[in-house]
Amino acid sequence: MSNSNNFKSVDFYLIDELLSEEQKLIRESIRDFVNIEISPNIENWFEENHFPLDIVKKMGSTGIFGPTVSQKYGGGGLDNISYGLIMQELERGDSGMRSTASVQSALVMFPIEAYGSEEQKNKYLPKLASGEILGCFGLTEPDFGSNPGGMISKLEDKGDHYLLNGSKMWISNSPAADIAVVWAKDENKRIKGVIVEKDMEGFSAPKTDGKLSLRSSLTGELVFDNVKVPKGNLLPNKDGLGGPLGCLDKARYGISWGAIGVAMDCYDAAKKYSLERKQFDKPIASFQLIQKKLAEMLTEITKAQLLCWRLGKLMDDGNASSAQISLAKRNNVDMALKIAREARQIHGGMGITSDYPMMRHMMNLESVITYEGTHDIHLLILGHEITGISAFS
Ligand code: TGC
Ligand code: FAD
């Protein structure tokens, strides 16, 4: 059985030398959190399709939410490498747990800080940071997934309030969320963001059942039936598709680090198992085909680490482009999925059981390679960057 408590990061290229003492301490503290709060329980939560709501406050008190949000609003005031390391450690535990944190930090706290009024920032950010309240992000609609610009949810100005109608689908955290950052079109077909609170009349968030992936994360719909949204809940400082897409940049960056955590967990399990498991009177690690798999895993993890470290620096300097973020999200999630499959094979039959993490990671990554822009959508974003020609219009 795998034991993640003695886990050590892969560091073949001495990337730790590029990290500050503070960054390493942050990574250790999240690793401890995962070892204590997540790893011992995750296989049960996954099997039982259970989202442990109390993890939200625990994540809040550990400083997981809003790491790059200003301390003035309860955030961590940290750099992007620290944010990435937090995501890496969390996703080593489970992609669903990282999802909860991604949504809260990048898709709810980020837009409120970047596009919100001072009143909104003071009202919501400290509570989101501490985990007192949970948020969700409503962009995808039943008929508009990869093409969110086509959305039909409507926001009508009724003088003293807005009237919100429409629905959103595949929304992480939604059934338990206290607030939702929702994107809808105004009378001029311009996309606007509003903060919807869970007890607003006409608003519901039914749970989506039957998921074989991210089973420890809650997913649901958002349904708006003539919801009266106070004028003060409009995010005043951004409109257009660039609003939600700007949040996605922040979340996709975090996912590119998170995928490294999954890959490291699978590599670690495969390395240990191959040294212990004997066939033909020898550890299977002595066979060249197993060594090839391990060597390729190490190579791909190392490349992904360097990619993320550099991207983090570009983010800190405000110089990271959306296409650079697409490249990292696409490469790293695909890399992690391939490593999970190879690690599963190294475990033979044992690899399909919940004694080892690979199957859970593989099933989770099928969502991760789909949400925040599918693998092919990111390829087309890169194609646009290279050629100057959009494949979408
Ligand atoms: P396009 O014409 O390219 O752009 C429209 C406007 O948006 C601007 N823009 C961006 N701004 C900031 N960041 C980005 N990454 C941006 N990409 C584009 C662009 O400048 C333009 O601005 P303006 O002011 O001129 O209007 O739009 P398009 O309709 O052709 O877009 C296509 C595409 C592929 C780029 C985009 O729609 C896309 O990325 N599709 C994928 C959808 C997606 O990722 N959905 C994610 C939903 S949320 C989610 O999955 C959360 S899971 C969370 C979890 O559980 O962890
Ligand atoms: P579609 O857009 O219908 O795509 C289907 C297939 O067609 C894909 O393979 C796609 O790559 C391909 N395709 C589409 N357009 C093109 C094209 N132009 N060229 C080539 N191929 C194309 N959304 C939110 O707003 N908030 C959330 O919190 C959230 N959480 C999620 C959680 C989970 C578990 C999942 C599974 C999804 C979540 N999503 C969320 C939605 C997610 O972002 C979408 O599923 C994703 O963007 C893809 O949209 P779609 O599922 O409608 O697929």
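qc> Residues 103, 136-140, 145-146, 170-172, 214, 219, 367, 370-374, 376-377, 380, 391-392 surround flavin-adenine dinucleotide (ligand 2) (CB under 6 Å).
qc> done
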